[in-house]
Amino acid sequence: MWLFALGAVVLGSTGQMCLKLGVNGGIVKSLSNPWTLIGVSLYGLSFLCWLEVLAAWPLSRAYPVLALNFGLVAFFAAVFLKEPLTPMQVAGTLLCAAGVALIGAGR
User: Fold this and answer.
1) How far apart are alpha carbons 23 and 20 in whole angstroms?
2) Contacts of the segment 47-50: beta carbons below 8 A, 24+ positions apart
3) pLDDT at 29
4) pLDDT tens for residues 67-105?
5) Dihedral through CA 83, CA 76, CA 46, CA 18, nearest 10?
6) I need a surface site. Which of 34, 54, 67, 92 has the fewest CB within 10 A?
7) Has residue 107 got a pLDDT over 70?
8) What is the rounded distance in angstroms from the CA atom of residue 25 to the CA atom of residue 30?
9) Gyration radius of the chain's alpha carbons
10) Across 15-19, 21-25, 69-73, which has the greatest mean pLDDT?
11) Statement: residue 106 has pLDDT above 80
């Protein structure tokens, strides 16, 4: 089930990056931008993975895994969009990952 959880996180984060690329021309133009369409499609796949996770895990265990999105989006934004990644963002990401690990280990 961890594979579906990871799939939900990676597909959702990648979808977020595609949406960002798609809306740079404004909201009206974004509706026909291929990046926007790819982003929505990836979100759809992420949703399907997430449904599998919800069917198998208690919500209190599953939901914290989504916190990994914060770190992955920050990493993707730094690498692909050249956005700055501050030490505070890195520390926050590591704390989120540690929290997810603790919640997962507690079951």
Assistant:
1) 6
2) 47/8, 49/4, 49/5, 49/7, 49/8, 49/11, 50/4, 50/8
3) 86
4) 889 889 999 999 999 999 999 989 988 988 888 888 877
5) 60
6) 34
7) no
8) 6
9) 15
10) 15-19
11) no
**DSSP symbols for the chain:** -HHHHHHHHHHHHHHHHHHHHHTTT-HHHHTT-HHHHHHHHHHHHHHHHHHHHHHHS-HHHHGGGGGHHHHHHHHHHHHHS-----HHHHHHHHHHHHHHHHHHHT-
CA distance 86 to 21: 22
- Calculate the alpha carbon distances from 23 to 2, 5, 100 in Å: 31, 27, 31
Over residues 47-62, mean pLDDT: 95
Domain extent at residue 34: 2-105
CA distance 93 to 107: 22
Mean pLDDT of 44-50: 98
Where do we find the tokens 């929505």?
Answer: 40
